[in-house]
Task: structure prediction
Amino acid sequence: MIKVTGNVMKSEIANAIQHYNKAPIYAYCEDLPPFTECYYVDRNEGTVQEFCGFVLHDLIEKTKDGAISMIVIYTNESDLENIGVFEDYAISNYEHGGYVGTVVLMTR
Result:
C-alpha cells in the first residue's frame, strides 16, 4: 500500500495515476470528486465499512481473470479510526486477497 496524505494536490496525483496506469479510482467523500471517471460513494450515504465492502465486491467481480495492478482509494477523511479501516481493507483484503497489486490510499 502507498499512502498519500495532504490537503491539496491529491486529485491531481490520482488523475495522473489513472491516466498512466489505467487504475480505477474509488472515492469516498462529501462532494463529487474532480475525476472524469471514478466510483463515488457520498460519505453521508454510507459508512466507511460499507464503502470498503463495496470496493471489495467490485474487485471480486473485476478480477475473475486476474488481479488489477493498482487502484486508488480517494477520501477527504481525517478521522484516524476511519483511516485505519481503509488501511486494514487495503492491505488485508485487497492486496493480500490477491485482487490488487498495489493500493494507493489518499487521505487528508
